[in-house]
Amino acid sequence: MTTLAQAQLTLAQYVAAEEAVLQGKEVRYSPPNGGADRVWRSEDLQQIRAGRQEWERKVAELQDSASGLPTLGGVRFGVASFGPY
Predict the structure, then answer these.
(1) Residue 11 has what DSSP assignment?
(2) pLDDT tens-digit map of 40-49
(3) How far apart are CA 2 and CA 61, in angstroms?
(4) Which of 24, 45, 53, 64 is least surrounded by Cβ atoms within 10 Å, i.e. has the fewest?
(5) Does residue 82 lie within any of the structural domains?
């Protein structure tokens, strides 16, 4: 299972890769879980953005889980209290 810290690190790496590719650079990424290295170039920008969006969702889910706020299908909601104050 991915921890919030791992997810945030991976998200930061995707953001850095996207920024570097937008500047015309080639980016090498080594996954923290020991997977194979990947190299991205400007033509891979769509793939980088999809990965960034995936990790943004994972970070949000882990933050929601850690906060203890109720969710329904990944959407946070509040619970109204109509009792006396």
Answers:
(1) H
(2) 777 788 898 9
(3) 11
(4) 24
(5) no
Sequence-distant (6+) residues with CB within 8 A of 28 are 37, 38, 39
**What does the pLDDT read at residue 75?**
65
- Is the separation of the CB atoms in 62 and 7 below 8 Å? yes
What residues make up the domain containing 10? 4-76
Closest CA to 21 of 51, 43, 36, 37: 43
Q: Say how many domains are in the chain.
A: 1
The number of residues making up the chain comes to: 85
Band of residue 11 on the pLDDT scale cut at 50, 70, 90: very high
C-beta of residue 26 within 8 angstroms of C-beta of residue 39:
yes
